[in-house]
Amino acid sequence: MSDTRRRVKVYTLNEDRQWDDRGTGHVSSTFVERLKGISLLVRAESDGSLLLESKISPNTAYQKQQDTLIVWSEAENYDLALSFQEKAGCDEIWEKICQVQGKDPALEITQDPIDESEEERFEEMPETSHLVELPPCELARLEEIADLVTSVLSSPIRREKLALALMSEGYMKKLLQLFQVCEDLDNREGLHHLYEIVRGVLFLNKAALFEVMFSDDCIMDVVGCLEYDPALVQPKRHREFLTKTARFKEVIPITDSELRQKIHQTYRVQYIQDIILPTPSVFEENFLSTLTSFIFFNKVEIVSMLQEDEKFLTEVFAQLTDEATEDGKRRELVNFFKEFCAFSQTLQPQNRDAFFKTLANLGILPALEIVMGLDDLQVRAAATDIFSYLVEFSPSMVREFVMQEPQQTDDDVLLINVVIKQMICDSDPELGGAVQLMGLLRTLIDPENMLAPTNKTEKTEFLSFFYKYCMQVLTAPLLANTVEEKHCKDLQEGSTKIHPVCPDNFQTAQLLALILELLTFCVEHHTYHIKTYIMNKDLLRRVLLLMNSKHTFLALCALRFMRRIIGQKDEYYNRYIIKGNLFEPVINTLLDNGTRYNLLNSAIIELFEFIKVEDIKSLIAHIIDNYYKALESIEYVQTFKGLKGRYEQEKDRQTQRLNSRYRRETRTLDEDEEMWFNEEEDDDEGEAIEKSRPEEEFPESYGKYMEAKKVKESEDKENYPKRTPTGSFKFTFSHSTGAANGTNSANGKTAASSTSPNGSPGKPAVSPATPVVKTAMVGLVDYPDDEDEEDEDEEQSPRKRPRLGS
């Protein structure tokens, strides 16, 4: 089995008309008892497993292409191909196939592909009608030849016969010689006929004809014929483009003449398929399948030949990373690698793996790190394309490289930071490059592709690396555009306002939206790391400033970020939101939106609906305690009344639970009365009840809100949210959020202070709350004078009215 003549690759044609590599092995032709006939067997060279077992059927049409390919169809939509390493092996198997079918090995195809209708007509017609007789190759007969070629395209049998006739006696070369004569004579009629002839011959879809037409001697004449489309007033200048405009650049001289010829041929044939030939109609889709295969196998061969030339690739990488290399030269080298990687996409998975591993071993990632930091936009764009190929191939390989970098370099030049900065600095108004880079970053930080069994610590190590070295670079534009400005001159004394510096230009808004999309992804997939980062940087408060943006899509991105955080149903997040009073900018936006029914309105309503349906008790208590007076007038949805109902139900449950605890405790004291009298110190009844309450029965923050309500009862009047005369929405509270949470705010001020529409904390509305007296029962008190205050509020703030007409 070591005979290289029999070494083959097995290919099958998939639904997308692309060839899939099924493996490499050695082919043989032997009698198989089970199939009752001579069969082609291919056994894998790696483990000897059977890759192919195909009986040589007498009626199957086998086709020999490019001297080293044998192609055939076994079923209606199941095409197979054997690609031989050596021509001698292909000839040997071809002779065996022809021997079984009783055909002449000199033919390129063993059978006529006859469908049922053709077969019926074949039986009815005399045999001579199937013989295609070509007219003499003369100028005067060009019209006749063109009519003949056009007429046979609808008949598979006649296409085969015509192909055989064209291959005999060098007929194609004679036709192309006539093209030169017609062009010299400026014979437009003859040139138009030659266009029809050459186009029809391409649609014959025969590899043997392609070998002649695409040879170095003939291909430019073929392109010349295709310039003279009768539908055009003036001929196209394809040859001028191929010979003068399109230049073949050798970044490193290619010494292999066969490789050079293959590269030239592939480029020109691809040009013919993509540029010159019209897009085939639905009925012509299969006419050029062999042309597609011709290009495919050429590309596979080019990549393989370059990959095997170690000296060539080593020299390319050496020049790419050499600081002395000129910018123009480096640009050509990067473009070469981009084209090289694009060609590699034609390879099958195992071959593509070997290709990218070769590039990695030669140092493609350090080289990309250098070129992605250059000022040349074309170079950066090409480097980004190469980087995308590498990330799609193996995110783990890229992650492994970047995690080794901090030991060798500064944070500013880390590969991922270079990628992030390129995303941030994208000059395209539509941010096309930034969107591509954001997708690559998302792939790299996605834990779903970090589950390789060979390295179980990859997820922990890489995420720790990313949040330590890269996250601050990613969020820098977001933090820079959401800074706080205090003590503005145009504000009344004693108030504070947060001004988002966010420019109104569309490009900046798009960039911030991309960053928020990535951060939202992190919230969903990086539970611990992103939570710590959000808490430390107070990130959600900064993000919610973007709710004021004039760009609705950016406000929606900010809202989506908060929605994803709440969707985690994590009490750490909930306490952070409550302590920071972070529902305020959302509710301000809802009220400022007025009676408009739009996506922003629906998204905010959905946020509160989620809290209600999931019964997130701590958030429900916070919303009702602090914002219900501003929301109760919204009646076109039942969301806020539902939240109030949940709040009341939970309050009733707590009351009942406390009462039952109190009764049980009283009975216990009756039974142990004698022991109780013997105690030296009396316990306060309220304290006994308080100690009997297990905190785990309900959220700690909820109980503290109930205690805080007792403080409110001692106040003469409760200050509710109002619209100021200027139309802004102001919150004033009689107790601090810090007291409600049982903690002080970070800056020592009460968080629930007078605020502006964009959510800035103001000065305390009252002095620090008095200590809360522990009690067994906590309730809310409705003050009689509240109704008058509500009427006054409604007059000042029409936006609180129901949005649906009654």
UniProtKB/TrEMBL annotation:
Regulatory subunit of serine/threonine-protein phosphatase 4. GO terms for cellular component: nucleus. Residues 144-649 form the Serine/threonine-protein phosphatase 4 regulatory subunit 3-like central domain. Residues 672-806 are annotated as: Disordered. This is Serine/threonine-protein phosphatase 4 regulatory subunit 3. Pfam families: EVH1_PP4R3, PP4R3. Residues 706-721 have a biased composition (Basic and acidic residues). It comes from Umbra pygmaea. Residues 5-101 form the PP4R3 EVH1-like domain. Belongs to the SMEK family. The lineage of its organism: Eukaryota, Metazoa, Chordata, Craniata, Vertebrata. It comes from the Eukaryota. InterPro entries: ARM-type_fold, EVH1_PP4R3, P4R3-like_central_dom, PH-like_dom_sf, PP4R3-like. Residues 672-687, 783-795 have a biased composition (Acidic residues). SUPFAM superfamilies: ARM repeat, PH domain-like. Residues 725-759 have a biased composition (Polar residues).
